[in-house]
Amino acid sequence: MTPQIETGVVKFDDNQAGYIDLGTGKIRLEKEEPAEWAVEIARKELRETPENVEKAIAELKELLQQQKHLYVPLDDDYMKMFLRPCHFYPEGALKRLVNFYHMKLKYKDSCEDILPASLKHVFAEGILTLFPKRDQHGRRILCLEAGKKWKPSKVPLNDIFKGIQLTVMGAMAEPTSQICGAVVIIDMEGLPLSHITQFTPGFAIMLLDYVQECICLRLKGVHVPFIKEKLRKRIFFHGKDFNSLAKHIDRSCLPAKYGGNMECELPPGPALGDFFDCYRKDFEMANSFGFTKDYVYKK
Question: What does the record give under GO molecular function (predicted)?
Fold first, then answer.
């Protein structure tokens, strides 16, 4: 009798890096250098040439050293994480970086302590899911099921937002995701009217601030009123028929419920929480960066 191989659980590779084994696929943090096809995208779309990279990194480090109250690493990999979404323009990267850490001060309750251990319940409920395959353009795919699956008594809206931030921070550490970005699928099927009251004007303002001014990942493909034109062009409504998603994301990257034919299963929610917890030290380190306690934020 052939022994069954356990799938849908966290395992560790030879370097003791955690990943979710899905049988015919896996989810892992891809921290290695990007493949040649991604390098070519970076060159064409992000101005990523050796000359531009060297110059931009040096200038951004100099700009950051002038920020006396901002504590962040100054290694080249960290600089690239903010320079890539800003096409290697140092001033733009500095603005995005400062906005990113201002979030922790502006929305303290929603943006502090973004740690896997405190957010396992979000993933356990299956509300947030990372697809095992990137799309045909190399983009990470994040799915938010905020309809009938969502029980606000178990997972407050604020915790969903923290879970999104955690997932984005994980993608930010991946060079390929820095280059290609991410797409988000928001599944609102079966959303009760009672849940809509959770979306207060204050929350909407915070979310727009995060997406438009602070997120340090190329959001390539999500519709909210009063958003900037650049983002509005990247948001698509599909109604109840998710087959139209295939016009934007290849079917091989989508599960059957969204009109796809992806061969491997989606990761179980608890496994995704455990997966992120494998990198708890990285998230704890990231959580320690930001403005010093003596810094006074001026609105």
Answer: phosphatidylinositol bisphosphate binding
